[in-house]
Protein 1
Amino acid sequence: MTDFSFRWKSGFPKIGIRPTIDGRRRGVRESLEDQTMNMAKAVATLLSEHLRYPNGQPVECVIADATIGGVAEAAQCAEKFAREGVGVSITVTPCWCYGTETMDTDPAIPKAVWGFNGTERPGAVYLAAVLSAHAQKGLPAFGIYGEQVQDAGDTSVPDDVRGKLLAFAKAGLAVAYMRGKSYLSMGSVSMGIAGSIVNDAFFQEYLGMRNEYIDMSEFVRRMNENIIDPAEYEKALAWVKENCVEGPDNNPSHLQQSREKKDKDWETVVKMTQIARDLMIGNPRLAELGFAEEAQGHNAIVSGFQGQRQWTDHFPNGDFLEAMLNSSFDWNGIRAPFIVATENDSLNGVVMLFGHLLTNTAQIFSDVRTYWSPESVERVTGYRLEGAAAGGILHLINSGSAALDGTGEQSKDGKPAMKPFWEISEEEAANCLKATSWRPASVEYFRGGGYSSDFLTRGGMPMTMSRLNIVKGIGPVLQIAEGYSVDLPQHVHDTLDKRTDPTWPSTWFAPILTGAGAFRSVYEVMNNWGANHGSVSFGHIGADLITLASMLRIPVSMHNVAEERIFRPRAWGLFGTADSEGADYRACSNFGPLYK
């Protein structure tokens, strides 16, 4: 059986720590060597202890061989970082240094500077000077400066500094990891959905990614020519029969398919799942079977499956393929999710990827289907919404593509959660499967049959919904809404759910309202959402998404993140401080895409 550790064969970017120092000898530099290097070591320890790569391994940090007092030592550090595969740069110092001589000038690497808040040496003066140089040279950097003064011998990392270091590093690693990877388009445009018009320039210039394409006929070829691992297929089919419960068939009796056709569909959707994964990352087992070219894959960290309508009018739908790959487990056990966008909506696939790289958790792909006002819910069900849902709710639902982690059957501190795969127990994975039924697809939508996952997300989970849109003349724009999943009384859920397609997974989502702009009401959130789809991530990660977006030069058009949580490059303040949303647009437009 295939060992899928090859998925990570290209490795991960490392974080480079640059200890800069006052270059003056004969007492000044010598007195600062230990303190400066200890700052670098403290940062490396912090990041390695608290951050993990998508495969679950601790993040690796690389520290310059010596403190950096001038341009020659800066060049030596840059050479070491290039050899070591550094993709994120953090400069630390307790003192004055020569700004343009010691700064990191690689334009493609996200960078931050921590200037120690102490009174003995002017670390804050260097921080201001070097950030000014970064702005002047068009190389925006994040400034980190502790609120409280520290003593010279204090080797601790204050909480506020710690939070900014972790936020910067998480986003920086996401930027670095995307670079050089692929988006795999399986098929083309689905039902005229703009997000599935894959924009090569966006992926290349903003994300540093390439685009790969296959026609959906490749699935037919691989099934007909048996270009899959047959041993894995037998294992997968047996696992599916044991763990995937087939739910009731909601189709009218005259449209219901035969038992023989349904059984055949199970065989087909399992093969489709194997094929989609192999197309994304390759599979050495195929080379052993004589398919060396197919064994390579497309180096894809995210993909999209067109499905409708050219595929689903004839073949089983892609719901099982998408739901299982997006989940943190399958017949090979508990593992990292694969990111697959329904209907080849590449822009929703990108925010799914953002959420995954920031949290290492599975993501829920859904339609932003319906706004239910309190009045409408009460009129239809007799129930008055309360608690987090008092202002109304959004019904997030789509044709069975959401990760099964979205059931909320995992737990953290006794509460429902979605967790990184290395924290998920076998029992939790089994509970997610038990909470999901696989409903025969609605043949009015999917003439070729197949199965759609059906589950109800447990309430009380902090969640963040996001969406990327492309606007002509502006480029990519990000939208963010933090909120909570909501429990409804069973009869209320059933009544509302049956008004749409009850064979699909449902998440009842209540965004947090601020009383201003797009977050004056839940209706305004729905009314301002830029597309029919959204990606939902566990946790309130809006601040992390904003940090990541600023690194990529993508402005944020709406969010409900408190101002004090927002962390962007220091240069953003030079575009205005009274209107941070406008300044974000101006800064992103001025500096332009990261890789252009």
Protein 2
Amino acid sequence: MRITKQKSWKVTRTLVLFMLILSIFSVSLPSKAEAADRVRIGTQTFTETKVLAEIYKALIEDRTDLSVDVTTDLASSSLLLRSLSKGEMDMGSLYSGEIFNGYFEVEDTRDRDEVLRQAQEGFDKLWNLKWYDSLGFENTYTLAVKQEVADKYGLSKMSDLKEHAGDMRIGVDTTWLERPTDGYPAFTKEYGFTFAQTSPMEISLVYSAVADNIVDVVLAYTTDPGLKEFNLVTLEDDKQFFPPFDASTVVRKELIEEHPELDEVLSSLVGTIDADTMTELSYQVDVEKMEPRTVAMKYLVDLGLLDESKLPASAMHPDANSFMKFYYYVTENASYLLHLTWVHILMVLCGLGLALVIGIPLGILSARYEKTGRVIMFFTNIIQVLPSMALLVLLMVMFGLGFKSVVIGLFLYSLNPVVRNTFVGLKEVSPGLQDAGKGMGMSRFQLLWKVEMPLSIPFLMAGLRVAAVIAIGVAALAPIIGGDGLGREIYAGLNQRHNIKILAGAIPAALLAILADIFLGRLAERFKIAKR
């Protein structure tokens, strides 16, 4: 039995060392997206930016030797701009009216050409970004209501809401309430009324909210397919409050200098997409449930910019049943889904590895020194109860977008179970065994290493089991701060109301949690047997 126990302890030490090396190695290495021959495209949460990203990707990979990675669902345009300025992303789609959000001094105007010029010159000077001419359409804000509401109150322009807004609820995107110059405070000042209730939510949800009578009015985007899907009436901005928002491709100038062939590819898209076309492309994704990649490639084929042979199989079978659509999606995106699964596992392993390496010594300190232990437990408890989204966003501000911030977050959330269970395991060691070790002349360190820690392994494994399941779940939030993992599919599916994408991310994430729980549970049982 003593041999079995020693083998178990050696296995545990090897596992801890391996996870530490993996954690340090993975966090220190640049991601695959940072390779010199890759272009990193970031998108916001709404659909048209994802379609545009796939248009860029298809053209770039078809006409150059570069590979493209698309990171979807960055929470806002300001976050995308921030990631471009820091070199965390290379390009994306942005809108000229973004200049009114306080990045630099601007002239207050509603002239579309002038707003675009200020965006091009301002962001060039501020962050060395190339802001291309408009893609050909404007996607600005508007207010929209159901047809019956417009008929009931005689609404055709925004000023018509003045007599009724005090009894109405408005649904808005998550950033508009705080925007300094074109947000809700400035809007109420300009139009002279406020709504009875404001409900911030993801832009993809506001249209179903008004359709279901959860809200009466919504802040909408003028090219959003939700307007068409739910037959909403847009109200005229009769005071011209909302600034122009012409869509453009925005790229780090360093990337263009390194790969001048990109400039010709991206310039070929200028002026090629009008508002009706963009609405239709987004409609195909949001309502007809086509993949952004498929929609983008079909559009390029129709324009004569891409060969039809490049289209995926799903584009050739648009009327397939749900099972076949899921099959096409999984097979066409198999390498991508496997990559997301691997990244998800890697993030969890790195977080757990750091938690073991730091948490075990903290647990030992907590067991040895009562006052120190109370302080350690207090702080790990505080971290454990922090909302995961809030903590991840805070880490993003401190450490930037992506892998590193996610791993640090998983480490912090895994810390408490490891520390607590190490502490409990050491406290459960029989005083008689400790006295026997001392009687044999063991030093304090030898007693810890050869007696107390081996006997504490079942408790430590129980803590690791809890931490692993928590980490797998929290890792699904990685896309919020630009990370990868299976959460990217779940989050994209929720934004697009796309059940296939949700299932493609949720099923393997759930399986990972179940398998981790089963594996670590059985491993813990083996250690209990060894202990007996």
Protein 3
Amino acid sequence: MKQVVQNYKSGELALLDVPVPGCKADGVLVRSAYSLISTGTELMKVSEAGMSMLGKARSRPDQVAKVVQSVAANGVPATYRKVMGKLDSYTPLGYSLCGVVEQVGAGIDDVKVGDLVACAGNEHALHAELNWVPKNLYAPVPDGLAPRHAAFGTVGSIAMQGVRQGESRLGEVALVIGLGLIGQLVVQLLAASGVRVVGADPDPVRCELAERLGAAACGDPGSAAVEHAVAELTDGHGVDQVYLAAGGGSNQPVELAARLCRDRGRVVDIGKCRLDLPWNAYYEKELDVRFSRSYGPGRYDPAYELEGRDYPIGYVRWTERRNLACFLDLAARGRVDVEPLISHIADFDDAVPTYQRLKDGELKAVAVLFRYPEQQEPDQKEDAARAPEAEAPAVTVPAVRRGTAAPSPARAATAPVRLAFVGAGNYATSMLLPHLAQRDGVELSTVVTTTALSAANAQRKFGFAAATTDLDAVLGDPSVDAVFVVTRHSSHAELTRKALLAGKTVFVEKPLALSEDELAGVLAAVEESGNDRLQVGFNRRFAPLLNEARKRFGARTGPASLRYLVNAGRLDHGSWYLRQGTEGSRFAGEGGHFIDTASWLLDADPVSVYATAAPGNEDLQVVLRYPDGSTATISYVTTGAPGFPKETLDLVADGKVLRLDDFVRASVYGRKRWVSSRLPKARDKGQSAELAAFVRAVRTGGPMPVPLESLVATTAATLAVRTGLAGGAPVTLTGAR
């Protein structure tokens, strides 16, 4: 299928061939009929992409701050690779469309195949021939509403949420500053609510359009006409609300709002304009400044948007989806008319030149639609519903039982190892694929994703031979030697199980499993297939600096005490790591790294786990006990200073101390002192060496880099942390070696 994409680094716009997205549970696959270009938001993004790197930085100081923090935590080279990887990737455009339901996922019962729906979301209602849309981001189109009009649903919801924030009442007077697409819709919604509206925009064509659509008067914000109209309609008191629907760097809108708003009036920011509030003017009138967050309650909440958890109507009357349905109803009943806003309808095949004409100013438009050609139904396979995480009253270390299938044969020395990737997110593209793409004897065969664009990006950047959304086809391909599972945590165990049953060697990023049942399912696949060719991405044991320090420390004779401080830091709001209901806790996802490192240094698997947490935050203390009496204490904290190193480790035994400082410097104190040179470039946490060992095992058919029993023990110990937190007592790992 085709999709409009942009490279933010180069500014390139393209109509790209990408794989068809899969139809997951709790959502629908929609074939686009019309999608709407946001001439404000999207053109701003397109313009930013054409700027120099300095211009991009000036336009996004929030992102610059994140880069500075990343440099402090991860070093310049790693941060540079991460930033350039994100910039030099295709990103999607679009967030408002109407289309026909082509496939219905499990759990959906309010629409059926063939229904017309309006869709929202900058990750789900893209300028693409097919989109997967979760259930809270679509709404059925009422009978009689044309598809091209229903495509306005998302921007209509944005305007509606702004009007709701203004709390307008019958007979009041409002000022709308900025008469672009959103401003025109705000004018109509206010007029339909019995509010008299004055519009302000420097474009006389837009002013005339707003007056035709219900505004009492409009004019240039710098002229006296707007002030005269407000004075006449309000007897000189000023408007009850001001809606800021303008963009740009001028502070004129907020200054005009203060001048023309009545005492204790409301100012609602809908667009993205400069907000240097003149303190005296806003203070003396005690103006109420409010922000309108996109389409309404639910926006930016993953539980609402992705997991489909609706808000109770008694507590949240107007959610994202209810706003969308309400706007469609108003349009169907003729209370809002979007037809006069349509300046141009372009065929989807002409998407790139249409954007260019808009950017160059050749095409003057309020709203532009893409019209999609009719196509035959694609052959889609529905994703299996995810199994819910099981709550287990106790944690055991399952015994590894291998079946009787023949082991993987060694490959010919001259034949390349053919690898497939399931998932192509940030970690895969920044930490794994760069080490594999240029490695001799490796061929990147196929990349599999549920979203088409991420697959296309990975194929372009790393040279995969093919990109698809069909996992079964890859697992059934006998030419694929190994499968990398680099998806979200909740899918690791099931994908690993399937790949093992298909006879593939598997590399799965941590965690291997989020519950005992998931871990048991993986081991059942090993027993059924006889295929134990599995590696979990515990890369720190492969770090060259830590290996050198371990060698310098030497063998020990007595118990050891190990302390591992992990300064994890806080996550950004909206990070999928925060979705504990589906993706597990942060420690469940990341803690295996640190348990594996401790067990490797102590050359044993833990026999008990004690965990305690500070109230009110995610800080954890995890104490592991080992068969010879050694202990490892892992302090996993999120409340530390962002400038402090992320990982520091001390190992003490037999009168010696090993110290690791964030994979930048290591030292060993004993009879002689050894201190490494500070790494001049980047923190090497072992990914390259780990991947080399994995590829070597695949090629030769030799032992996997880490014994399966060790991987299972580390996973079981990680799961025991949750059990220990719930019970408040040490958890014995029954069956531990």
